[in-house]
Amino acid sequence: MSVTRTAPVQAATPKPATPKPAAGRAAATPLWWIWLAAWPVTAVFVLSNAATPLYVLWQRDIGFSKGTLTVVFAFYIVGLIGSLLVSGVVSDRVGRKPVLLPALALGLAACLIFGTATSVAALIVARLFTGIAVGAVVSAGMAAVTDVAGPERKRIAALLASCAMVFGAGLGPLLAGVLSELAPAPTTTVFVVEAVVLAGAVLVVLRMPVRRPERRGQGGWVRVPGVPRGNSRQLALGIAVFAPGITATSFVLSLGPSLLSGLLGTTDRIVAGAMAFVMFLAATGVQFAVQKLRRRTILTAGAAATALSTVTLVVAVHTEAVAVLILAALLAGAGQGMGQLGGLSLLNAGIPPQRLAEANAALNVGGYLPAGLLPVSAGYLSDAVGLTSGTTVFAAVLLGLALLGGLVVLATRREVTDPA
């Protein structure tokens, strides 16, 4: 009889206690918290491009060339890449909040400097601060969305994080364009509004249900971000399509207003802001449209959209047609959106949580390097040979990169067969 009493007790004790709470936490997190966790990403990316329609005003008031304009834009890339060398590793080791809160503080400082800028140096500092904040957000912020979602909802986390990034990037120039035309203090009002948006993001981060990591990684704190052994091919596939896509959108952001005002004769800042907005609206919408397709299809379509955007861009500058330029912007947005979703979904599916922020940082380093270098080169080339010739050379180089990325994806099957 004693044996029969002890047997049930022994049968009940082996129940695993660890997996259940983890699954319970993931299921208990409301879906609205996943959306809210993406808000800091949106808030910082609103700042990232809010200055785009205002450069024409600063050029008129301060006085600088298109080459200098692209240098100001490039300092954003410098700050972003410098931030990515640190923020991904720090976020994976000490937590998301200790990285996100200083990033939002830098964003608030950038708003103050932008709103009072009277020199190229001030614009450079503001862009540098913005780049640092964005670097922290694309690594720690996007990983935080995945943490809040939990392991069972990685797909929706990748989709929302990616869409939060591109939607914020498009909303910034639209707000700036409208407010600079309709509100007083055209180069100040939008940054007051953005400061309020960032303050709201601070409150979200303070309440965000994420925990500090239990294990801390090894190696240096400042390093070129990477992925665990065995995941390098997924990273390379993401960069192959994401990099040309974001380079195309970066060109539209940095030189699009100059194309509209100088070459095409359109000086309305609302038009410049709206063009950037619809570009990133396309990047957002296309991700919802293709989310159930296989990653290989998404990445291939992204490369094709970027290639078509370069061809359309050349047609636009040679025919001086605003509508064709907007079509080029829409295709560029679609290319970035699909490349970004495909790359993030590959990383989310294969990278452990303790390395995810660093992997996100690695994807963005690979994307933003050409996005900084090629538009700057195009800006100085346009100063030397004219905007039409400079844009044509840029488009030809980017067309080659987009086609190469598409061929790389088509040649690889195993890593990109699953749905995004």
From TrEMBL:
Q: Could you tell me the membrane topology recorded for this protein? A: Multi-pass membrane protein
Q: What is this protein called?
A: MFS transporter
Q: Which organism is it from?
A: Kitasatospora cathayae
- One Pfam family this sequence matches: MFS_1
Occurrences of domain Major facilitator superfamily (MFS) profile (ranges): 26-414
Q: Which domain of life is it from?
A: Bacteria
Q: Do the record's keywords include Transport?
A: yes
Primary site of residence:
membrane
What InterPro entries is this protein classified in?
MFS (IPR011701), MFS_dom (IPR020846), MFS_trans_sf (IPR036259), MFS_Transporters (IPR050171), Sugar_transporter_CS (IPR005829)
Where are the annotated segments for Disordered? 1-23
SUPFAM superfamilies for this protein: MFS general substrate transporter
Q: Where in the cell is it found?
A: Cell membrane
Glycosyltransferase among keywords: no
Which parts pass through the membrane?
32-56, 68-87, 99-118, 124-145, 157-179, 185-206, 235-255, 270-290, 297-317, 323-349, 361-381, 393-412
